[in-house]
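Hello Y.,

Per our agreement to keep a running log of every chain we model this quarter, I'm adding this entry. I've kept the format consistent with earlier entries: sequence first, then predicted structure.
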Amino acid sequence: MQVDLDGAIRIARLAADFHWTWSEGDLERFCNRAGWKVIDSWRLGTSFQTDLKVSIPKAHAQVDDGVVRVMADAGETVKWIGVWVADTADDDEDDAGTIASRAQLVRAFEQLRGRICSELGAPVDDETDNDPAGETDDSAPEVSWTSGNAVITLLLSDEVVVLQLTNPLYREWTKDSDDGGYED
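Predicted structure for the entry above:
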């Protein structure tokens, strides 16, 4: 299990201070400022190799293909960038190893949450419900901050902690979609 606390805080601060237009040109500009390298690009996304000290130093960006009308109307194409800031190295662990890894990921999530709160202030959304381990809910715990023209979210999954940098228009669209307000 590896976590890069300082690297995650650096990326969160960089995202908060970045002048986002949420166009594909932002991907190259942000990548250069972050010190990342493009690995692959395709019609709906880009993969990056990050400089974070984790087992698999990677990030992915997802691009919209015109489905999210409010983004298309604003000339914005980038939905989000997801950055692995903590991960487990072993995919073939036994149950005891998986439980230990999960506990380590929960600790990493809580450490990252505390450090990002110190850097960006109180979160605007906290979907951990005091249960960051996700033991009483099937949804992945997440905490979000709004800073500048970005939503910065810390997500805890089974094998990684992701720092997601999200276009606010996309974030609002997904919330509306979850409430039955889906547009196409």
